[in-house]
Design a protein that fits this description.
330 residues; alpha/beta; Rossmann fold; four-stranded antiparallel beta sheet; globular; binds adenosine-5'-triphosphate; binds magnesium ion
Length: 330
């Protein structure tokens, strides 16, 4: 069966930061796609480039230090890296929206919740004030918050973190985006509230054919939400595949390490990672596999050459010398 054309196709994306100490390759030549209605989770340790990938898609990497230096981001036949700032502004918050870990930092403390939901509706969808207000109340109910009228009149500081995050989802989905990017949307919340927010995300998705790119380092969230999983390490994708295949049959030693420490209810996320060693210093990356010095299966070639991402099983790709033979025969 011919797969449907993806909603977004990212090819060879590279985003660098120019620092006094040298160039940091925050995102280093990654390619992936997200289909209509699909939830793709991006996982990996702190600093591996998850947020910068999201920011690059949103056109929010700010110069002069940060810059998308290469690649293509095809979204509905447009290359987001080559359209005007004006066109990108129209897409942002409208066709693609993003929510972050800290809702407080995205909300305006002196405007009521209602006004903040109404704003993009009036701007992007050209609704009248009255229509926008009605839709705002609808959205508040949609994300599972009762007494919408009262909530619309409140200010951000009057609501709990979990409620604010659901308001952020309401704002993000208000213009019925085709793609919602959620960067650690539940990390700051306690476990029961996390479940509500994930449920809200899932329900919002069911309302439309929205795709979700969900960034998380919580494998429990991945198991619950993902159709497809991308594992990043030091700015690169080391493995990607269908969630079931990836959980049942992880190939890359890094993915295997991540999965060895299965999430335990009530355990803090930071403790999930039990892989000894540290992510390499982004300023000191060599021509080796970036994972080699933490890898139990490290071979000679791993120290001198970087493996490329290759298909080892239909749809699943891994960048690891262990599978070189298998990839060749695929
Ligand atoms: N403004 C900046 N200047 C220099 N380097 C930066 C800047 N922003 C990000 N980086 C670097 O880019 C790399 C990727 O950062 P990114 O924020 O994407 O990581 P992440 O995977 O989202 O991590 P976390 O899980 O902690 O959110 C890191 O090495 C980081 O230090
Ligand atoms: Mg991040």
């Amino acid at each position: 069966m011919e797969p449907m054309k993806p909603l977004i196709e990212i090819s060879n994306l590279s985003t660098h930061f120019h620092t006094a100490a040298g160039a940091v390759k925050a995102v280093d030549g990654i390619s992936f796609r997200i289909h209509h209605g699909e939830t793709v989770c991006i996982v990996g340790e702190s600093g591996c480039g998850k947020s910068i990938t999201a920011m690059s898609i949103m056109g929010l990497v700010e110069g002069p230090h940060g810059q998308v230096v290469d690649g293509q981001i095809l979204f509905d036949d447009r290359d987001l890296l080559r359209i005007s700032k004006e066109e990108m502004r129209r897409i942002r918050g409208n066709e693609i929206s993003i929510i972050f870990q800290e809702p407080m930092s995205s909300l305006n403390p002196v405007l009521t919740i209602g006004k903040q939901i109404m704003e993009p509706l009036m701007l992007h969808q050209r609704l009248s004030k009255k229509q926008a207000r009605a839709r705002a109340l609808e959205l508040i109910e949609l994300v599972g918050i009762p007494r919408a009228e009262q909530i619309a009149e409140s200010y951000p500081h009057q609501l709990s973190g979990g409620m604010l995050q659901r308001i952020m989802i309401a704002i993000a989905i208000s213009c019925r985006p085709k793609l919602l990017i959620a960067d650690e949307p539940t990390t700051a919340l306690d476990v029961t509230i996390q479940a509500q927010v994930l449920d809200t995300l899932r329900r919002s998705k069911e309302q439309s054919n929205m795709s979700i790119m969900l960034i998380t380092h919580d494998l429990g969230v991945v198991a619950e939400m993902a159709d497809y999983v991308i594992v990043m390490y030091a700015g690169k994708i080391v493995e990607q595949g269908d969630v079931v295949e990836l959980f049942e049959n992880p190939k890359h030693p890094y993915t295997q390490g991540l999965l060895k420490s299965k999430p335990v209810i009530g355990q803090r996320k930071e403790q999930l990672y039990s892989i000894p060693g540290q992510v390499p210093n982004p300023l000191e990356l060599s021509a080796s596999c970036y994972f080699h010095d933490r890898c139990e299966s490290c071979m000679e070639i791993c120290r001198s050459q970087q493996p490329q991402l290759k298909t080892v099983r239909a749809g699943n790709q891994v960048a690891c010398w262990l599978y070189e033979e298998e990839a060749r025969h695929e």
